[in-house]
Amino acid sequence: MSLKNYLLHFCAWSVIAASALSAAACSDDETSDAPATLYYPEVVNIAPTVDFVMAQGPDFQGPMPTDYEIAGITCDGQAVQTDLFSINPETGAVSFRHAEEGEEIPLGTYLLSIGCKVNGNYHVYPDVLIVKMVASLPAAVIATPSEVKVAYEAVLNPEGELPTVELSVEKGASISVKSWEFPAEAVNNNPFYAYFKISKNGVISLNTSSKVLPGHFELDVQVNTSAGEKGIFEKVVSFDIQSKPLTLTYAENLLVEAGSALTLPEPKYVGSLDGVSFSIAKVTPVGEAPQTSDFKIDAQTGCVSVEEGNTLQPDTEYDLDVLVKNDFGEQLFEKALHVTVTAVVASIKNFKYEPLSIARFLSFTVEKAAGFKGDNVSYEFKGLPAELEGLLSIDRLTGVITTTKQVEAPINLDRPSFEIPAGEYDVVVLAKNMKAPEGVEAVLKLSVVESKAYFTKFGYGNNLNLPKTEANQFRYVYSSAEGATETIALDASLGDIPSGQKVVFSITQPDKFKQPFGSCSINETSGEVKLAMKGEDPNACGMVLVRATVGEGAETFFRTIPLFVASENKDNILSFTPFVMKVNPVKGGRSVQAVSHKGDKLLFDYRRNATYQNLYASEEEFPSGKVGVNNNFLSQMWDKYALWKGGKVNYGAKAPLSYFENESAGLQNAWLYIDNNLGSQSERWTMVVTPNAWIGSEGNPASGVWCGGMTAVTNGNVANVNKGTQIWPIMVWFDERF
Hints:
Blueprint: E1 8-10, E2 15-24, E3 27-28, E4 37-46, E5 52-54, E6 59-61, E7 65-75, E8 78-79, E9 85-87, E10 94-96, E11 108-118, E12 121-133, E13 142-144, E14 147-151, H1 152-156, E15 165-168, E16 177-181, H2 184-189, E17 196-198, E18 203-206, E19 215-225, E20 230-242, E21 247-249, E22 254-257, E23 262-263, E24 268-270, E25 277-286, E26 296-297, E27 304-306, E28 316-326, E29 329-342, E30 356-359, E31 365-366, E32 378-381, E33 392-394, E34 401-403, E35 411-412, E36 423-433, E37 436-449, E38 473-477, E39 485-488, E40 503-508, E41 520-522, E42 529-532, E43 541-552, E44 555-568, E45 574-575, E46 580-583, E47 589-593, E48 595-596, E49 603-614, E50 625-626, H3 633-645, E51 672-675, E52 686-689, E53 704-713, E54 725-727, E55 731-734
Parallel strand pairs: 4-12, 14-20, 22-29, 30-37, 35-44, 38-44, 46-55
Antiparallel strand pairs: 1-5, 2-4, 3-12, 4-6, 5-10, 7-8, 7-11, 9-10, 11-12, 13-15, 15-18, 16-19, 17-18, 19-20, 21-24, 23-27, 25-28, 26-27, 28-29, 31-34, 32-36, 33-34, 36-37, 39-42, 40-43, 41-42, 43-44, 45-48, 47-52, 49-50, 49-53, 51-52, 53-54, 53-55
């Protein structure tokens, strides 16, 4: 009997060592009959916090075993008595229960000896099942390298190659890492996290689309394991973006009170802080003002000051040149600040902000209200509400408040990039100068309201007699006649587009998809779609993208959805209902079973014309198109398969998607396949998507639609499958939210 392809189902698992199966002959306790040989897959990276259930019992050679039991368990060579493991006496499938609260399960390698009856005689198979129990979270995170130094000039060079950091954990010491991210709390409290990107497979890089500034930055990371555990590791990696002094900005209209001590507001400095020092290079009197040495500067902060009893005269002015040095160079800032000497520095008066009401998802800028009085004022928040941490910033020299994460409208609500939760907020600001060192308070009354144009969904339903949750799928009888059309009306019950708002519908037809129809159009007002049904093939399915745009101006929102169409006629070989398989690319899955219209000997396999259309993810990471074209996402998938096989990539090969070419080596090696196991009434003619296969170059799961061409035979002849009838009966919609 050939070895079966095992599938182990449990809450979280990392690796099934399919190529390292454990085999054991029996210990003949009661008879000399030729024993069977049992095969269990080695199971690695099981965590104490998860449940484990083997989908089926062992494979075997020889007579069929019965009456299975666990005959003994060792952990790292020591015999243990435990109820953690149990076995199905009929099938031999082994289960593991998770730790109860407060229960400690020893980590290590468990060896299970299995007893059973063969030909009515009892035998023991020693150490036939290997289970490696590891921690639910890693003890530490390894960053390679842990310190990165990069010149600011390199960051600004669009053609340059910037360093990256790869994160990892000790191999085999903990359950596998599912994904990496920056902790939300760290991101919200530290705007500099916008300078960096982290991929789900643990690569940290500079986000050159953000306005990166020089400085020393230490980053926390969050690891998410396959056991569902999350761990935050602080200061895992540091980035030192090095530059000489770049800019130095002091507040305008700085006043010094003659004869009084005064420290002017701290300037805004851009450049590395390593070894930074400030000095006054030159003081230039303006007009008839006399020379003076009364101006001093703090070498560490750049704050300019005068002492009590200074000899400065009212109604005189001075320009100050400031020299800034750091470990990477120096820069002279001529006329860096202009100072006017006055008899009195004005106190802060009429400090306030007008109330602001703003719709969710929209950015804003708020200035002080008119009528403000005060000289040499600096501004700062006095404790932002927790919901606004990291979302607002204030210019300490002007008091202007802005949203930290700027966005451009319209916004695709599938992936909102900025949001302050709806609610009422008091944003307290302190204004300080020499006359009010403790600060004068003003409150911005911020009201974030739901937009009148805000919506989250719309849809068309289906004509497949399926629940409306299987929306936007329609199958029609194929027609080659000129002028044959079908119309698909919007289903208002599937949407929440607000009444009274301007709505515009538009439609696009993705390139390179096998279409069962020709052209398409849409009524911009009603959303009704019209399809010209003279398409390419009666055995195909295809897709258009429909966008609804609601609102006008800055307060505009849109959402794009796929609309799927399939064709059929009397010669159809098979059909899937639904014909779109929704699947989480991390979890994988199995589709509904196809219905054969040509008998029980139907065989079909993927053959050619694989195409992918990105929907909501980055087109840079998931370029759409046919395999083999311009290093797009599918080409990268074929590259990965060739790397695994150790041969030269062949973009015309069907192997990454083929049942028959992976059947002997292990179907888990295919990215997806059609199950042609005719011995299984429930699983044959289903689509299987392999977990964690459809992952982009930066470790992020795919978020788009895939379709490929198959060839089929109806006589059960495997040798002729590649030459069979071409069909396109099913599509796969990848989205991590499924």
